[in-house]
Amino acid sequence: MNAAGVAMLIAALVVGTASAAESTDAWDGAATGRSALLPAAGTSTVRASPRHARSSPAARAPSSTSATPAPASRAPKPAADTQVDVRILSKHRPARLRLDGPRSLEVVASGNTLIVDGRPQPHALRLDAGRWHVRGRGLDRRYEAALSLEARDGELLVVATFELETYVAAVTASETEVDTPFEALRAQAITARSYVLASGKRHDEARACDLTHCQVLRGEGFARHLRRARDAARSTEGIVLRLPGGDIALSPFHASCGGHTAEPVAVFGAPDRTGAAAVPDRCPASPWRAVVPRALVTAAATDALGGPAQAADLLLDRDSSGAVVRVVDRASGRDARGDAFFRALGSRAGWDRIRSAKFSMTLGGDQALLEGQGHGHGVGLCQAGAALLARQGWTAEQLLAHYFPHALPGKLQDK
Question: According to the model, what pLDDT value does residue 212 have?
């Protein structure tokens, strides 16, 4: 496509997306304003060099759509815990909550003071395990857990403590579509259980959060789907994925790989703790497009590379799946993982716009056109692909062998 053609395409996309633009939530980052349409002249394409996926005997801990591995320097020892502490509702920053369950009460954060039913509480409030209905401004959630609440700078910090299998069922329901086949739900349950046990403590207040940084846990949802998710968790109770050395696999998953999963070491770095591999998949391409300011790309590259960089100087390096696994600044010679660049872009433009690391980038004037496939980091279990294969008769065990060829299912007590 010539320069004029690219400019016209980007201009059309800007016009077409402006009316449908949505602001992202506090976790994903604020939506970036759009500047003027591209001129026809001055258009360039950021070059990408194809590269075969690297292999390694070991992958580093993840940081997903959902479950993404944590940095290797913080890699904790896997633990066969029976409970999971989860920081909940942080995205909503609640200052007042109504709780109904084994008891009913209203809790308010006043500075660093916790007010319970109108009375100051000198310590954190701890509520026994039960079925809790939690309501607040824009919130209506249900949790089967013990709760802990404290006040911090006018906000309520809430931690829910779940029994392991209750947590696995809730995550499985939150992370999948209502029509997901049962065998895909079983594979998701094993993957989620393995991930939370292998990831260790990822937050100061709790092992996990309820966002895509760890694993999504909505605390609400379609009742029939939750029942199916509970059945899936119950049918796989205590089963995890184990690496050849016996450690529990830090098994990531994502919404859609776009037809080929990504190499874990290429995306997350070494050593590999996922048990996953880059494999062809029957997942639909799931194409997406986004027009963003050129300045946003420059800022994202500067963050990812740890120093000043210009969008025009970027070279994108890909693995066999087509995912950007390395970004190079040709001016300085600095490079960074493609995952870091993808996340820097997503945090600025919005995760619903920059959906995956599998994209190309074309620059023109003060705008950039990103065209990609898939949704998420692309490593491990592809939820769209697993659902499609399960509808064709694949079992959970076959799905896990497909997406995690370097790990085997086993019981928690097995070494």
Answer: 84
